[in-house]
Amino acid sequence: MKKRTVWFLTLVCLTAVISVYYVFERPSDFNLTTIFTDETVDETILTGVDSSDKVQTDHYAFDEIRLEMDNERSQLREQYTEKIASEQISAEEKSAAYTAMNDLIERESAEAMLEMLVKSLGYTDALVRVEEKQVAVTVMSDEMSAQEANEIIYLVKTELEDAVKVVVNYQSEYY
User: Fold this and answer.
1) Integer Cα distance of 62 and 137 in angstroms
2) pTM for the complete prediction?
């Protein structure tokens, strides 16, 4: 065999092994939501700002909800992976589990992307939950006008064309 053919086969085999590893043995510290967070904004110190009249809260409520959602989805992913790897399950059931796992990953990606886009509208934090054709968006804001809510709804509907119902809420970031 030629050197080129041997190298090509080696690279294909290596790619196949790595792909199988990540499908069945996903690293436990992998979290899609951490890709889109920007902690440097929260760590920035503002000078010349008088904040003595208001006390800003940390966004623990959103973090707790995200953690719960992440735990639930991690368990679902594990169940789907077990079904796919099981030899006692039919091919149709394996296919359904694979499709469900892909849908879950797509939903997580869509939520993370929408959170990033909503934050880019000027909100300090946003929480997006996608359930089938319903999307719930909660933003950190003291108040929200109908125009701001419509802007978020428009953003969601342009990104998720199959979103039928979009609910926008706001939560105050001050006591």
Assistant:
1) 11
2) 0.61
Alpha-carbon distance of 34 to 66, in angstroms, equals 11
Report the phi/psi class of residue 48: left, alpha or beta, with left for phi > 0 and alpha for psi in -120 to 50. Answer: left
DSSP structure class, residue 173: S
> Is there a contact between 79 and 145 (Cβ–Cβ < 8 Å)?
no
- The CATH number of 31-171 is which of 1.10.490.10, 3.40.640.10, 3.30.70.20, 1.10.287.4300? 1.10.287.4300
Distance of alpha carbon 67 from alpha carbon 30, whole angstroms: 13
User: Percent of the chain, pLDDT > 90?
Assistant: 19
State mean pLDDT over 136-160. Answer: 90
DSSP structure class, residue 174: B
What is the domain partition of the chain in residue ranges?
Answer: 1-30, 31-171
pLDDT in tens, 95-121: 998 899 899 888 898 898 999 999 999
Q: Which residues pair with 151 in a beta bridge?
A: none
Please say whether the beta carbons of 31 and 70 come within 8 A: yes
Torsion of CA 76, 116, 121, 156, to 10 degrees: -40
**Which of 21-25, 82-86, 160-164 has the highest mean predicted lDDT (pLDDT)?**
82-86
